[in-house]
Model the fold of this input.
Amino acid sequence: MRVHISIPVNDLGKSEAFYSHLFGQPASKEKPDYINFRLDQPAIHLALVKSESVSKQRGTEHFGIELPTEETFRSWENRLTASGPEMAQPEPGAQCCYAKADKVWLSDPDGNRWEIWHRTGDHFSM
Done:
């Protein structure tokens, strides 16, 4: 089982570079107007579709990947933050959505926000 997400993008090249870095592996399929990442970990099928008119008005706040262990999170965090703060912003000890977590935030070339996190405990308010 995989979650499928399709995202319209302005520049396939920039988006492919971003998502290859995010996932730590190259795209699974590349066409002139389409790229996808079919991953087992995380179980996701992400499609990037070339669009001439990507709207800045979005229906999503952000996308996220919850990682199962602190070790896995630290591995992703180290890889993602190695590119510098313009690529990834760590948020250790975040308290949100009734949980405590260590997080890293990224934005793709079209402004879609991604939250990579590992839950560390409960928090009792939003």
Observations:
- The chain has a mean pLDDT of 90.
- The chain has two domains: 1-52, 62-126.
- Residues 12-23 form the longest helix (12 residues).
